[in-house]
Specification:
The complex is a heterodimer of chains A (472) and B (201). Chain A is α/β, with parallel strands linked by helices and 472 residues long. Chain A is built from 17 helices and 19 strands. Chain A folds into three domains: 166 residues, Aconitase, domain 3 (2-Layer Sandwich), CATH 3.30.499.10; 90 residues, 3-Layer(aba) Sandwich (Aconitase, Domain 2); 182 residues, 2-Layer Sandwich (Aconitase, domain 3), CATH 3.30.499.10. Chain A is globular and about 55 Å long. The relative contact order of chain A is 0.13. Chain B has 201 residues and is α/β, with parallel strands linked by helices. Chain B has a single domain, classed as Aconitase, domain 4. Chain B contains eight helices and seven strands. The chains are: A alpha/beta (472), B alpha/beta (201). Chains A and B meet through α2, α3, α5, α10 and α11 of A and α4, α7 and α8 of B.
Chain lengths: 472, 201
């Protein structure tokens, strides 16, 4: 008999019922809720006279459209539309009795950052949220993915989802990362390799020495962008790094339950003889610090390269590349390091954790933003912010000329006041470089926190390794 | 949910790959707490200039496609965010069927929850439909879910696959939640056994 993948094991452990045609009812262990994709779902419950099936497994936090400036705990300081959504979440959370971190709670933050931080996210769980970057939680060996609002309502009402099983894909990163290359470079390079639809229909398990060597923060960055590669979810098998991170967190199991949980978690790996429908192998030594040049996360190039020409692509991608270059205001053949920037954004569920802020601060220490470049640091949670302040990172950012903001999704999706102006070009640690994503007409280059910091210092896209050499 | 059985209507060509959900409905329109009224902002930044005037070249602004009910698109349609506002905007505009060589997973699921039929076809067949759609208002296609066929304006019949359960739900206009609540006993049973096996969850 063939062995099982990690995905197979988690799936089997949550199967409530399976129909003859393969349609399954899957139990959901954790449901994360935010203000933008939930109002219609709660309204649907109310209209049908239904309750939240498992309020103790449901966690709500406002993050997408909250301002990141002081005074936001008074909703009068929000735009009217944001206020309506934030107040709706507040009302829904209290009325249905679900776990809730309001905007004035220090534990508030981006939903995918606070889930792990509070110990809600545990190995072997099924976790969903009305947000595509739910894949982040896969870093713990949890099957985690985004759902639409109708499915949010379905989970609220039944604590299950109707699903068909995806295929298994293994992405192995062999060897050790060279200096200056980070988890963000891994995940962008994978998407550059497989394309944004390369993972469609699959759940990806990331493995290999380079993945094993990553911290939990780095693993979350890798899994976060699984959706950008089209995959339903990304997974990393739990190990000692995972268990060390979880132990002692507020909602992690304690005492005898910890021991029982640990015993099960240690069985959560893919068997040697498991079947893979697709395998991708990348050598860590071949990964360089990368940036995106276009308007799709697959538009990835090593920072040492040049802006490509549309003719380098085939099929519909050539036309898409032409459109991207026009939107981004770039000429083929331009060295990427010649691209000047106007703004730096450090934050998001991809790179808003403490390690990300440390990496950016290490580059910014005793340096300043280039003249004319504005910078914003938005910690992923109130607790990340407090930790950074304890370490003095906020001082480094402020002395370099950055704004030091409160936690939220901020500029990553520009639903709040933090936006790019038309034509403004930004070095961003977020996850999407789509047209208009960070503000209508705004131009986004995705990269790691250290690379974004380096671009801020020089005023143009920069190979961070050059600044690292100077530091040494 | 509104049923989808058979639809004869105008198909609009949108030959772009990786049409993302930010293009379909930009974030400033996600601040609604309703499911309706988003059609006017469908493809907002492609459809209107910064002053809110229609861009005459955009396909849905051209006279022959203003009442399109079918959209023919490129690879990886609906990639990006999980926002269900994307299918809500498409439906509110009046489009009930999207045909593409591939769709992003979450968008694909979201369509079925809203009475929209997403059809996956090989590139060559999408090309045939794209050409037919480019003829404009005279080209009316027929999408027949029961028989799983699309018939071009010239009578060419193209068959497509669809998941049987999802087909059944669309044809009957069934609400998933109602169906699942019929399985309440199985869910309760699962929860009881899990309380023993994994009490920390």
């Amino acid at each position: 008999m063939t062995g099982k993948t990690l995905y197979d094991k988690i799936w089997d452990a949550h199967l409530v019922e399976q129909d003859e045609d393969g349609t399954c009812l899957i139990y959901i262990d954790r449901h994360l809720v935010h203000e933008v994709t939930s109002p219609q779902a709660f309204e649907g419950l109310r209209m049908a006279g239904r309750q939240v099936h498992a309020p103790d497994k449901t966690i709500a936090v406002p993050d997408h459209n909250v301002p990141t400036t002081a005074g936001r705990e008074d909703t009068a300081n929000m735009t009217e539309e944001s206020r309506i959504q934030v107040e709706a979440l507040d009302r829904n959370a209290r009325e249905f009795g679900i776990n809730y971190y309001p905007v004035d709670d220090i534990r508030q933050g981006i939903v995918h950052i606070i889930g792990p931080e509070q110990g809600w996210t545990l190995p072997g769980m099924t976790i969903v949220c009305g947000d595509s970057h739910t894949a982040t939680h896969g870093a713990f060996g949890a099957l985690a993915h985004g759902i639409g609002t109708s499915e949010v309502e379905h989970v609220l009402a039944t604590q299950t989802l109707i699903q068909k099983k995806s295929k298994n894909m293994k992405v192995e990163i062999t060897g050790q990362l060279p200096p200056g290359v980070t988890a963000k470079d891994i995940t962008l390079s994978i998407i550059g390799h497989t394309g944004t639809a390369g993972g469609t229909g699959y759940v990806i398990e990331y493995c290999g020495e380079a993945i094993r060597s990553l911290s939990m923060e780095g693993r979350m960055t890798v899994c976060n962008m699984a959706i950008e590669g089209g995959a339903r979810a990304g997974l990393i098998a739990p190990d000692e790094t995972t268990f060390d991170y979880i132990k002692g967190r507020p909602h992690a199991p304690k005492g005898a339950q910890w021991e029982a949980a640990l015993a099960w978690w240690k069985t959560l790996y893919s068997d040697d003889d498991a079947h893979w429908d697709k395998v991708v192998t990348i050598r860590a030594e071949d990964i360089a610090p990368v940036v995106t040049w276009g308007t799709s996360p697959e538009d990835v190039r090593a920072i040492t390269g040049t802006v490509p020409a549309p003719e380098e692509f085939r099929g519909g991608k050539a036309e898409a590349a032409r459109r991207s270059l026009d939107y981004m205001g770039l000429e083929p053949g331009t060295p990427l390091t010649d691209i000047k920037i106007d703004a730096v954004f450090i934050g998001s569920c991809t790179n808003g954790r403490i390690e990300d802020l440390r990496a950016a601060a290490a580059i910014l220490k005793d340096r300043k933003l280039a003249p004319g470049v504005r910078g914003m640091v938005v910690p992923g949670s109130g607790l990340v912010r407090a930790q950074a302040e304890e370490e003095g990172l906020d001082v480094i950012f402020k002395e370099a000329g950055f704004e030091w903001r409160l936690a939220g999704c901020s500029m990553c999706l520009g639903m709040n006041p933090d936006q790019l102006a038309p034509g403004e070009r930004c070095a961003a640690t977020s996850n999407r470089n789509f047209e208009g994503r960070m503000g209508r007409g705004g131009r986004t280059h995705l990269m790691s926190p250290a690379m974004a910091a380096a671009a801020g210092v020089t005023g143009h896209l920069t190979d961070v390794r050059e600044l690292m050499a100077e530091t040494v | 949910m509104e049923k989808f059985e058979k639809l004869t209507g105008i198909a609009a060509p949108l030959p772009l790959v990786n049409v993302d959900t930010d293009m379909i409905i930009p974030k400033q329109f996600l601040k609604t707490i309703k499911r309706t009224g988003l059609g006017v902002n469908l493809f907002d930044e492609m459809r209107y200039d910064a002053d809110g005037n229609e861009k005459p070249d955009f396909v849905l602004n051209r006279p022959q496609y203003r009442n399109a009910e079918i959209l023919i698109a490129g690879d990886n349609f609906g990639c990006g965010s999980s926002r269900e506002h994307a299918p809500w905007a498409i439906k509110d505009f009046g489009i009930r069927c999207v045909v593409a060589p591939s769709f992003a997973d979450i968008f694909f699921n979201n369509c079925f929850k809203n009475g929209i039929l997403p059809v996956v076809l090989p590139q060559e067949q999408v090309d045939i439909l794209m050409k037919d759609a480019e003829k404009g208002a005279n080209a009316r296609m027929t999408v027949d879910l029961e028989n799983q066929t699309i018939t071009t304006s010239e009578g060419e019949v193209i068959a497509f696959d669809v998941d049987p359960f999802r087909k059944h739900c669309l044809l009957e206009g069934l609400d998933d939640i109602g169906l699942t609540l019929e399985k309440a006993a199985a869910i309760d049973g699962f929860e009881s056994s899990m309380a023993q096996a994994r009490p920390w969850v």
